[in-house]
Predict the structure.
Amino acid sequence: MNNSAKNNRTKKSAVLLNGILKENPVLVLLLGTCPTLAVTTQAVNGIGMGLATMVVLLCSNVVISMLKSVISDRVRIPCFIVVIAGFVTIVGMVMEAYVPSLYAALGLFIPLIVVNCIVLGRAEMFASKNGVFISALDGLGMGIGFTAALFIMGSVREMLGSGSWMGMQFLPEGVPTMSVFLLAPGGFFVFGVLVALARKIPAKGVRFKKDFGCEGCGDNDNDKVKESGRS
Amino acid sequence: MKEILVILFSVILVDNFVLSKFLGICPFLGVSKRLDSSVGMSIAVTFVMILATAVTWPLYALLLARFELEYLQIIVFILVIAALVQLVEIMLKKYMPALHSSLGVYLPLITTNCAVLGATILNFDNGYTFAQSLANAFGAGLGFLLAMVLFSGIRQKIEEADVPETFKGVPSVLIAASILSLAFMGFSGMVEGVFGK
């Protein structure tokens, strides 16, 4: 009894930590690259985007795991998308009301949380197969991992590109900054270097992906397998 | 007419969806390994993008804006895109099986391609008319094709290149994308120069 309770707890913490370290959605699974590159010109924007995505992930994971027995397998993707789009609309409205400056800075990428591979991927791979509480933990862990990665990337780009961190200027007036890091090429470059650095961190059981692509949202080979399995 | 040309050229070269707006990065990095697959994916994306614009623009202008339902934009647009993708797939399967076998595998991926949803939302953020929106969608698709074709050529060279162990695979691809986007920055200001401001 005691042992099984302990096992249960280690399993829960493993699910929570999974998204933060072992399967970090950005640096290990290489998902959600669009917002990662687009909004990380400032560390604050990275955190804002990360938290918005985390709320959507948490809510959609909870609702989808509750509805998993009701949703028929054939129409599951549209159902998941409607749930996710509903929460994205709510998050967008709340942000517009309470943090309008952040909402304006993130712009188009708030509605685009709907098509973030991480959210749909977790719905498909985790929430539709697991219980409510454990899905909530998974959403939370993935959200924290996403936020952390965006924060690191935003910090690097802000420090190199505008000589400040979290809005605090540390380079004296008149020192030229490398503003290319705030532009598109800098985004790709910093992301590439961060993925390479993440590979250097010695960690057990982390399987870095050799290539891009998302298993959760209709990858070519996976889809074929699924379809042949179904028919 | 001039306005449409300006939109077309700026969205293909200057504000390229992939290389300067960061839309559709997943397929850009995921499918650009081979030339034929990148062309197939880009054509499928262009097709769905134009169709989605042609459906969402009247829907928004005539239905949502009229009854003050603008807040439903995200849900309605993503459903329209998902339904269109499904519809296109069924139609292709029935009437053009040859095209379906070459484009079919990319179609399910398009629903979650942020370039399509991004293009339909940007049409309204920029206040485009119907014709301008269609030009925007077409240009975005062509820009995507251009970036994909160029990048698939670069990637084939990277495969053979001798890069340090840590940078093998994904990181080197990202650095190459960075350099390509740096090259595209050379187009900035070109549209104003050609068409006048």
